[in-house]
Amino acid sequence: MIEPQQRYLAPKSGTTVVNHVVAALTRVGISVLGSRVLAVRGRTSGQWRTTPVNLLVVEGERYLVAPRGHTQWVRNLRASGTGELRLGRRVEAFTATELADDEKLPVLREYLRKWSWEVGAFFEGLDKDSPDDRLRAAAPGFPAFRIR
Protein backbone atom coordinates (compact mmCIF):
# COMPACT_ATOMS: atom_id res chain seq x y z
CA MET A 1 0.00 0.00 0.00
CA ILE A 2 1.22 3.51 -0.84
CA GLU A 3 1.76 5.79 2.15
CA PRO A 4 -0.81 8.65 2.08
CA GLN A 5 1.95 11.29 2.05
CA GLN A 6 3.34 9.68 -1.13
CA ARG A 7 -0.01 9.07 -2.84
CA TYR A 8 -0.02 10.03 -6.51
CA LEU A 9 -2.27 8.72 -9.27
CA ALA A 10 -0.89 9.37 -12.74
CA PRO A 11 -3.41 10.47 -15.38
CA LYS A 12 -4.63 7.85 -17.85
CA SER A 13 -5.12 8.64 -21.54
CA GLY A 14 -8.90 9.13 -21.29
CA THR A 15 -8.49 11.53 -18.38
CA THR A 16 -5.80 13.43 -20.26
CA VAL A 17 -8.23 14.00 -23.14
CA VAL A 18 -10.93 15.30 -20.76
CA ASN A 19 -8.37 17.58 -19.05
CA HIS A 20 -7.35 19.04 -22.41
CA VAL A 21 -10.99 19.73 -23.34
CA VAL A 22 -11.77 21.35 -19.95
CA ALA A 23 -8.55 23.39 -20.11
CA ALA A 24 -9.35 24.57 -23.66
CA LEU A 25 -12.87 25.65 -22.68
CA THR A 26 -11.56 27.40 -19.57
CA ARG A 27 -8.86 29.20 -21.59
CA VAL A 28 -11.55 30.72 -23.81
CA GLY A 29 -13.59 31.78 -20.78
CA ILE A 30 -16.05 28.90 -20.35
CA SER A 31 -15.94 27.52 -16.82
CA VAL A 32 -17.07 23.92 -16.47
CA LEU A 33 -18.72 23.89 -13.00
CA GLY A 34 -16.09 26.13 -11.46
CA SER A 35 -13.10 25.04 -13.51
CA ARG A 36 -10.05 27.28 -13.81
CA VAL A 37 -6.61 26.89 -15.28
CA LEU A 38 -4.12 26.86 -12.43
CA ALA A 39 -0.75 28.41 -13.25
CA VAL A 40 2.16 27.86 -10.86
CA ARG A 41 5.85 28.48 -11.42
CA GLY A 42 7.93 25.33 -11.54
CA ARG A 43 10.03 24.89 -8.42
CA THR A 44 13.16 24.12 -10.46
CA SER A 45 12.64 25.76 -13.84
CA GLY A 46 10.75 28.88 -12.76
CA GLN A 47 8.58 28.43 -15.88
CA TRP A 48 4.79 28.67 -15.65
CA ARG A 49 3.12 25.24 -15.44
CA THR A 50 -0.61 24.96 -16.04
CA THR A 51 -3.32 22.41 -15.32
CA PRO A 52 -7.12 22.50 -15.07
CA VAL A 53 -8.50 22.50 -11.52
CA ASN A 54 -11.86 22.71 -9.79
CA LEU A 55 -12.19 25.83 -7.66
CA LEU A 56 -14.19 24.93 -4.57
CA VAL A 57 -16.01 27.46 -2.39
CA VAL A 58 -16.98 26.42 1.16
CA GLU A 59 -18.58 29.01 3.47
CA GLY A 60 -17.10 31.87 1.47
CA GLU A 61 -13.53 30.47 1.48
CA ARG A 62 -11.92 29.18 -1.71
CA TYR A 63 -9.95 25.96 -1.98
CA LEU A 64 -7.98 23.82 -4.39
CA VAL A 65 -7.95 20.07 -3.78
CA ALA A 66 -5.62 17.58 -5.47
CA PRO A 67 -7.69 14.43 -6.06
CA ARG A 68 -4.68 12.64 -7.60
CA GLY A 69 -2.54 13.27 -4.54
CA HIS A 70 0.92 14.81 -4.38
CA THR A 71 1.10 15.97 -8.00
CA GLN A 72 3.64 18.30 -9.58
CA TRP A 73 1.28 21.27 -9.22
CA VAL A 74 0.99 20.51 -5.50
CA ARG A 75 4.75 20.38 -5.10
CA ASN A 76 5.20 23.59 -7.09
CA LEU A 77 2.49 25.40 -5.08
CA ARG A 78 4.07 24.30 -1.81
CA ALA A 79 7.41 25.69 -2.98
CA SER A 80 6.12 29.01 -4.31
CA GLY A 81 3.08 29.68 -2.12
CA THR A 82 1.55 31.68 -4.98
CA GLY A 83 -0.09 31.09 -8.31
CA GLU A 84 -2.71 32.29 -10.74
CA LEU A 85 -6.21 31.15 -11.55
CA ARG A 86 -7.13 31.80 -15.15
CA LEU A 87 -10.51 31.92 -16.84
CA GLY A 88 -10.41 33.29 -20.35
CA ARG A 89 -8.57 36.62 -20.26
CA ARG A 90 -9.16 37.02 -16.53
CA VAL A 91 -6.08 36.26 -14.44
CA GLU A 92 -6.30 36.26 -10.66
CA ALA A 93 -3.10 36.07 -8.61
CA PHE A 94 -3.42 34.34 -5.25
CA THR A 95 -1.50 33.13 -2.23
CA ALA A 96 -2.03 29.61 -0.95
CA THR A 97 -1.96 28.07 2.48
CA GLU A 98 -1.93 24.30 2.72
CA LEU A 99 -4.54 22.86 5.06
CA ALA A 100 -3.57 20.61 7.93
CA ASP A 101 -5.13 17.16 7.68
CA ASP A 102 -7.62 17.87 10.48
CA GLU A 103 -8.90 20.94 8.59
CA LYS A 104 -9.64 18.99 5.40
CA LEU A 105 -12.78 17.04 6.35
CA PRO A 106 -15.45 19.62 5.40
CA VAL A 107 -13.46 20.57 2.29
CA LEU A 108 -13.04 16.99 1.09
CA ARG A 109 -16.69 16.20 1.82
CA GLU A 110 -17.89 19.23 -0.18
CA TYR A 111 -15.44 18.44 -3.00
CA LEU A 112 -16.88 14.93 -3.22
CA ARG A 113 -20.45 16.25 -3.05
CA LYS A 114 -19.84 18.61 -5.93
CA TRP A 115 -17.49 16.65 -8.19
CA SER A 116 -17.65 12.94 -7.32
CA TRP A 117 -19.07 12.26 -10.80
CA GLU A 118 -15.79 13.62 -12.22
CA VAL A 119 -13.12 12.68 -9.65
CA GLY A 120 -14.77 10.01 -7.49
CA ALA A 121 -12.58 7.24 -8.91
CA PHE A 122 -9.50 8.98 -7.50
CA PHE A 123 -10.97 8.86 -3.98
CA GLU A 124 -10.77 5.06 -3.85
CA GLY A 125 -14.15 4.19 -2.35
CA LEU A 126 -14.74 7.41 -0.42
CA ASP A 127 -17.80 9.55 -1.03
CA LYS A 128 -19.57 12.55 0.50
CA ASP A 129 -21.28 10.25 3.02
CA SER A 130 -18.14 8.45 4.19
CA PRO A 131 -17.66 8.45 7.97
CA ASP A 132 -15.36 11.11 9.41
CA ASP A 133 -12.80 8.52 10.51
CA ARG A 134 -12.41 7.21 6.94
CA LEU A 135 -12.04 10.73 5.51
CA ARG A 136 -9.62 11.65 8.29
CA ALA A 137 -7.50 8.55 7.57
CA ALA A 138 -7.38 9.39 3.84
CA ALA A 139 -6.78 13.15 4.28
CA PRO A 140 -2.94 13.01 4.09
CA GLY A 141 -3.23 11.64 0.55
CA PHE A 142 -5.35 14.56 -0.69
CA PRO A 143 -3.49 17.89 -0.46
CA ALA A 144 -5.78 20.91 -0.15
CA PHE A 145 -5.02 24.64 -0.17
CA ARG A 146 -6.96 27.70 0.96
CA ILE A 147 -6.43 30.44 -1.58
CA ARG A 148 -6.73 34.20 -1.12
Task: Describe the protein in words.
Strands 1-2-3-6-5-4 form a six-stranded antiparallel barrel. The chain has 148 residues and is of the alpha+beta class. It has four helices and six strands; from the N terminus they run αβββαββααβ. Helix content is 31%, strand content 28%. It is globular.
SSE arrangement:
Blueprint: H1 13-27, E1 35-41, E2 48-58, E3 61-65, H2 72-80, E4 82-87, E5 90-98, H3 105-119, H4 132-138, E6 144-147
Antiparallel strand pairs: 1-2, 1-4, 2-3, 3-6, 4-5, 5-6
Neighbour order of strands in the largest sheet: 1-2-3-6-5-4
- The arrangement of helices and strands along the chain is HEEEHEEHHE
Low-pLDDT parts are none
Distance between the termini: 35 Å
Helix content: 25-40%
The gyration radius over C-alpha positions equals 15 Å
Largest sheet data: 6 strands, antiparallel, barrel
Shape: globular
Number of strands: 6
Q: Structural class, please?
A: alpha+beta
Percent range for β-strand residues: 25-35%
Given the structure, what is the number of helices? 4
Mean pLDDT: 91
